[in-house]
Design goal:
Layout lengths: L5 E4 L10 E5 L4 E6 L6 H4 L15 E3 L5 H4 L2 H6 L6 E3 L1 H28 L13 H10 E3 L6 E2 L5 E6 L7 E7 L2 E5 L22 E5 L11 H14 L3 E5 L5 H14 L8 E4 L1 H15 L21 E2 L4 H6 L7 E5 L9 H8 L6 E4 L8 H6 L4 E4 L2 E4 L3 E4 L9 H8 L7 E5 L3 H15 L3 E2 L6 E3 L1
Helix pairs in contact: 4-5, 4-8
The protein binds zinc ion.
Zinc ion binds next to loops.
Length: 459
Amino acid sequence: MGGHTSVTFLGAARTVTGSKFLVDTDGARVMVDCGLFQGERLWRRRNWEQLSVDPATVDAVVITHAHLDHSGYLPLLVKNGFSGPAYCTPETAELAAIILRDSAHIAEGDAAHADAAGYSKHQPALPLFDSGDAEKAIDLLTTVDHNTPTTIAGGIGLELRSAGHILGSAFAELELAGHRLLVSGDIGRPGHPLLLPPETPHAADTVVVESTYGNRQHRPEDDDVVADAITRTVERGGVVLMPAFAVDRTFVLLMVLARLETEGRIPSVPVYVDSPMALRALEVYQRAIARHDPQVRPEVTMASTEYRPARLRLAPGITESEKLNRPGKPCIVVSASGMATGGRVLHHLKHQLPNPRNSVVLTGYQVPGTRGRALLDGEKQVKIHGRYIPVRAEIHVANAYSAHADAEQMVQWLSAMKPPETAYVVHGEEDAARALAERLADELGWNAVVPRYLERVRL
Ligand SMILES: [Zn+2]
């Protein structure tokens, strides 16, 4: 099209985090996703750098889902002058409020810690943003239901359609004066035990698509990996620690554990959920089940026991959390954060990793530079709270419970569309993004490219 319509890749270009896509038209400037960079310091440092555009010039934000790498920069955008609406689904608004408050709390804690340790450049140390910024960001969340076309800044049309990734997740279909732009956000795998599969995308002229697992295939045998790890660990009297993202993954794991128990494939032992944020998210999920939300599979009801292992223990306080460091009996502990970058899971890792009786089961994508990735890569020690902890526990990986589609599922999902003019492959490490771009070219005949960080393309 003519005019000056463009997309600038302000994040998630050749990396999986920091999703931020700036859409400029003649009439408006809209940011689709507003995520924080996580993982390696090189990337996290970008959170502190000045954005290449003045946040005050952004008219509106669209948030595809609540995960921090899609929503977590919003408080910072607000702190630096953004005051427009941030469109998202109602469930994303609920979950983003939980996630943004938690992340402000962590940022404030980190700053206080830097002060105490005396290693901050600032005196006193400054958090990336604080609770006040998070509350202002939460106030700007403006809800739009799935499948409800709406008009936003500059006459841009917006429709959010269910992505089946986590509750509330959506891919965004934008209409820019006749040019149709699809931004995938994160696309779920069709086998999510709670959520219905992603909806079929409408035709688009330009596609911006994620590639988290662009070079990988989920393995159906991961049930066996988990069942085997739990059975053997319980037999030798150990603890099974499952680091899990608080939102969605914890719920999915409870469903997996309940099913394996019912099928008689794992012994019934106490299952502890030790993450205050996970417990708040579980409430949002339970409310969605109770009201028969259209994103939820109809067979999952409040009456079903599908998401409750028999000996589920919710809501342990700090004292109970500390007791779990030496449980004295076999049990399963599900705790956040999922990549072991912070949260209560660190205390559990510190206590469980040195003992070969125990097992750690990693169940999600592990960004390079995180402790989770170090464990995945077979490191013999990891640094926690300033100390090196030897890794003697068994480490298992079960990616099949990921909230992301794998490469085959992404190609399947996109194959329903007519080829767009161009597809920009984002939200994947470079190898994964390139692999998916190649498959889109070879199998669907698409013009698919992998954009660079800060690259701007005309539509
Ligand atoms: Zn996500």
